[in-house]
Amino acid sequence: MKKFLAKRLSGRHSSLWASFLAIILTLITASALLLIMGKNPLVAFQSFLQGCGFLPKANYGGGSGMLSDLFDFLNYLAPLMLAALAFIAGFKTGLFNIGISGQMLISGFLATVLVGYNKELSAVVAKPLVILIGILAGGLVGALVGFLKFRFNIHEVVSTIMINYIISYLTGFFINNNFVNIMTRTSNVCSPASRLTWTNVQIGGVNCKVPLGIVIAVLIAFVVKFLFDKTSFGFELKAVGLNAQCAKYFGVGVGKSIVFSMAISGALAGLAGVTYYLGYTNTIIPKTLVGMGYDSISVALLGNSSPIGAIFASVIVCIFQQGANYMSSRVGVAKEIASLITGIMLLYASCGNYMKMIANSYLRKEMDKSSDRKEEER
Amino acid sequence: MSEYIVEMRHITKRFPGIVANDDVSISIRKGEVYALLGENGAGKSTMMSMLFGMYEPDSGEILINGKPVVFHSSTDATAQSIGMVHQHFKLVDTYTVAENIVLGIEPMERKFGFLPWVDMKKANKEIAELSKKYGLEVNPTDLIGDLQVSVRQRVEILKMLYRKAEIMIFDEPTAVLTPQEIDFLLDIIDGLRKDGKTIILITHKIMEIKRIADRCAILRRGKLIDVKNVAETSVQEMADLMVGHKVSFNQQKAEARFRETILDVDHLTVKNEDNFEVVKDVSFKVRGGEIFAVTGVSGNGQTEIADAVAGLMKIASGTVKLDGKDITNASVRERALSGISYIPEDRHGTGMVLDFTLRDNLALREYFKEPFSHKGILNQEQFQKYAEELIGRYDIRSGQGPATIVRSMSGGNQQKAIVGREIEEKSKLIIFVQPTRGLDIGAIENIHRQILQERDNGAAILLISLELDEIMELADTIGVIYRGELLKIAPAGEMSSHEVGRYMMGVKDA
Fold it and tell me: Which of A242, B7, B84, B245 has the most C-beta neighbours closer than 10 Å?
């Protein structure tokens, strides 16, 4: 068993196995927590899956079914995947974009105000416009962060946290003054034409919300992969991320790379923002940053900072986040356990390199032992 | 009482992947200068780190004065009167000499019976006396930050003396010194021996061993090859034993054939981040087929000259021309494309991306050109083909060929990769900064041969090195730099290494 794991962790697909192991360890830890609370972990995990439409529930309300749950899941998955890709785009260049929440919020806010409240625009114009505003708003904030880093040497973690607050309070102020719905205390809803999710679509006899964002997200994952694996621009960005001094030495404009990379990261965060605020929720809670911006970091790490890995990792994290409501009502555990599980997963995922290191040294010792044995036999 | 003050018996030490010391036994007599000779990676430093308590041996035992000892830390070793001068000094820049020396064992007293108080006056006095006794010429109240490297080294020696060390380990003590400073240091070591101290000298410079050591242990690849009485052996024999095959000391150097001027540096001034002039009003020319060597004590502005020419540092004033074209304000990429290759001093930090594959690292100068990329899309097959070509041509050895992550390669092969990549550009000017630092003799020979070959092919070579031997062996023209100024430029044949050494110390009329 030990040897089997060690071999997997040091072989060609070591990162994949490290992520896999992180998930298993998370499930074991979560089970232990649930057992301590006196709940059956198997039932809990089953209801997570049921809540996301992967398994059928015992009964459904009128007009909804397993498929509606699955589409709800996709609705939440799309912005999460995009946010994770946003993080990865920066991380490959050595930038830690912790301001994804803020970039999501400013894009969502601007798209809501500029397009969502304009009742005259048709869907064909409104939807592309929303996407464009998302990309531009997020991209500009990202570029600003990159500029601050390159020009004034302000670390991106510091500047993004500050900008998060600025955006949160600024948008909150405008929403509360101009766009608030007195009943819900959140912003007024957007026009259906501008929304990136089609509501009340009848599929197989049940009501579904079909998200456009999930198509964009999967597409973007492959675009990001292409950018970093196949283009000379991506080659330069990776070099800046791993060794900026060397990148400068072989003629890369390091400052330019940082600004571009942050702009790309911000643009993807902006996309995540519009799919979240004009797709999943359709409204903005003032002065509140979504946790998704931070969850995206665990998703990215669980996916080993690979764009394709992020697709799978976001599915796994999303199951816990999205399935938590149903699990909570069925098993009777507060739904905050989803965030707890995500946190545990982040912890194990970030131990991936450590696990690989242990595996390598274990194998080396085994090899020494067997070669010693051979020598003795001789 | 045993005949030997230090005995290390059957010492074996393994690190992941390598055996640093394999069943090595050495015995050192009281009052002798005992040298450990070997190439980089032969296991000399590991051996002494165990004697100084920084590592524990996997097997074997250490005896001091005939009694077995086990060291868990260097504190244990210090308690047994062992001291060590590391290659990189362990001193606090903002403290005075005396404060550094007493650090950790401050002479404490109680003022008014209770107030703890460090008696610096007493420490200063004691240290001044020690310094005088051994001719170290160190002023206890100077700040370390203001002192030259050679003086800092003597502070380290004082530190051992103050701690009453009887056994003193020197790790490559002459690597950073000028010839005059080396003479001075060897005299000090001689004085220490006369005073009855036992000296262990780790070095790969055989001439120094010949001058000062009584006995010499030769290590190769972790194994003890031989122990020689220095008086009864020759430099040639020690060199052969160290390397394991016959060594030729001099490269075959063809007569220089100078061509037209390639690099023309005129009144160059460079400022560092603190706006301090690190290079002051420097002018020189390098012709095709010429090796122009800049030498000086470390930190006198020589690497900044290289960085300024290659475009990594901004030029404050003056001009740099390459083949008649003004490149003073050109970008790094423009300079590289107009014909500058650069082998940087810091091969890990600057020369390569350690987490990239060898294939990617070999393409750093080419990846953006056809056929390596077409309209911004990389052509991986070309990367692979180019890497295979260079690996063959420059004999770059690695675990998995082009797909090897460079971090896992040996220093010598990393340097081969950088040198190969830069030479392959067929540039008009090739800048070498410390091209052989930390490499073993075989690799050094190899790189020296390549430098000479490029020169004979007509390239202009700007060589910057701290190794005076290297400069004397390769240079056609020598420029000596001191505090950012080129004090002297002369054809190599017209200056002896001692003259060069005097200019390195800042003496203008040597």
Answer: B84
Asked whether the CA dihedral B304, B306, B310, B315 is positive or negative, the reply is positive
The kind and range of the H/E element at B43 are none
CB-closest option in B312, B353, B376 to A232:
B376
A198-242 residue pLDDT tens: 988 888 888 889 999 999 999 999 999 999 999 999 999 999 999
**CB within 8 Å: A232 and B377:** yes
Closest to B14 in 3D by CA, of B222, B220, B219, B171: B222
Residue A245 has pLDDT above 80, yes or no: yes
A364–B17 C-beta distance less than 8 A: yes
The 10 Å Cβ neighbour count of residue B346 is: 15
CATH assignment of A72-327, given 1.10.357, 3.30.450, 2.60.120, 1.10.3470? 1.10.3470
Helices (H) and strands (E) in chain A, counts: 15, 2
Q: Report which DSSP code applies to B493.
A: G
A232 in contact with B, Cβ within 8 Å: yes
Please answer whether residues B169 and B34 qualify as being in contact, where contact means their C-beta atoms are separated by less than 8 angstroms. no
Contact assignment for A249 to B16 by CB distance below 8 Å: no
User: If you classify domain B4-243 with CATH, what class do you get?
Assistant: alpha beta
CB A128 within 8 A of CB A136: no
Q: Which residues of B touch A (CB under 8 A)?
A: 16-17, 310, 312, 331-333, 336, 342, 344, 346, 349-356, 360, 364-365, 367-368, 372-373, 376-378
Do B16 and A231 count as a contact with CB atoms less than 8 A apart? no
Task: Determine whether domain B257-339+427-510 maps to CATH 3.90.550.10.
Answer: no
State the Cα–Cα distance between residues B127 and B77, nearest whole angstrom.
Answer: 22
Of all residues in chain B, the one with the smallest CA distance to A227 is B377
Interface confidence (ipTM) of the complex: 0.82
Checking B243-250 for CB contacts under 8 A at 24+ apart, the result is: B243/B39, B243/B441, B243/B442, B244/B220, B247/B441, B248/B445, B250/B473
Classify A292 as helix, strand or coil. helix
How far is the C-alpha of A159 from the C-alpha of A148, rounded, in Å? 8
Report pLDDT for B469. Answer: 84
**E-only strand ranges, B288-445:** 291-295, 315-322, 325-326, 340-343, 373-374, 377-378, 429-433
pLDDT at A376: 62
**Tens-place pLDDT, residues B278-289:** 999 999 999 999
- CATH 3.40.50.300 maps onto chain B at 4-243, 257-339+427-510
**Rounded CA separation B510/B500 (Å):** 9
Comparing A214-218, B43-47, B259-263, the range with the smallest average pLDDT is B43-47
Predicted TM-score (pTM) of the model is 0.79
Q: Sketch the domain layout of chain A as residue ranges.
A: 72-327
A243 touches chain B (CB under 8 A): yes
Please tell me the distance from the alpha carbon of residue B381 to that of residue B371, in angstroms, as a whole number: 10
Average pLDDT, chain A: 90
**Does B16 have pLDDT greater than 80?**
no
pLDDT bracket for residue B86 (50, 70, 90): confident
Looking at the partner chain, which of B310, B351, B367 has a beta carbon nearest the beta carbon of A235? B367
Q: What integer is the mean pLDDT of B314-341?
A: 94
Nearest to B386 by CA among B362, B412, B420, B355: B362
As a whole number of angstroms, the distance between CA B86 and CA B78 comes to 14
* Contact yes or no for B400/B384 (Cβ under 8 A): no
A231 touches chain B (CB under 8 A): yes
